[in-house]
Amino acid sequence: MSDSIFSKIIRNEIPAQRIFEDEAVIAIMDINPLVEGHVLVIPKEPAETLGELSDGAAAAVGKVLPRIARAVERVTGVSACNVLQNNGSEAGQEVMHVHFHVIPKAASGGLSMQWKPIEIAKERVAEMGRQMARLL
């Protein structure tokens, strides 16, 4: 794994506005926010993608994400937020260290998405589901 900006923040080599930290997770204000109150939640374990993250580190992130989301919503005054994780460069990940964005959704800003569902044959969906289940 490369020595990312998040690794340097975790080691206190680069300053960041920390809003939460425990032995496994750090949460910081995003320095390039989409909207006021945009927070990054970062596991301290060095892993580039979610699939490389240990179950323990993933559980630690999952434990704090709801708390961070509640704090973001309360401080920004919004009633909704997006939680986003870009997993791999093809999915838009720019810093190759697993991290989650908590982005307040205000009427005038935040994350914009258009959902364009596709049609897939039921048989194909069922086969893919069976294959995934076998891997788990």
CATH superfamily: HIT-like
Q: How much strand content do the residues show?
A: 15-25%
Distance between the termini: 25 Å
Number of helices: 3
How would you sum up this structure, described in words?
The chain is α+β, with helices and mostly antiparallel strands. It has a single domain, classed as HIT-like (HIT family, subunit A), CATH 3.30.428. It contains three helices and five strands. A five-stranded antiparallel β-sheet has the order 1-2-3-5-4, covered by helices on one side. A hairpin with a 3-residue loop joins strand 1 and strand 2. The mean pLDDT is 93.
Topology:
Layout: H1 5-10, E1 18-21, E2 25-29, E3 39-43, H2 55-76, E4 81-84, E5 100-104, H3 122-135
Antiparallel strand pairs: 1-2, 2-3, 3-5, 4-5
Gist of the model:
Helices cover 31% and strands 17% of the residues. It is of the alpha+beta class and 136 residues long.
Give short descriptive properties of this protein.
17% strand, alpha+beta, 5-stranded antiparallel sheet, 3 helices, HIT family, subunit A, 136 residues, 5 strands
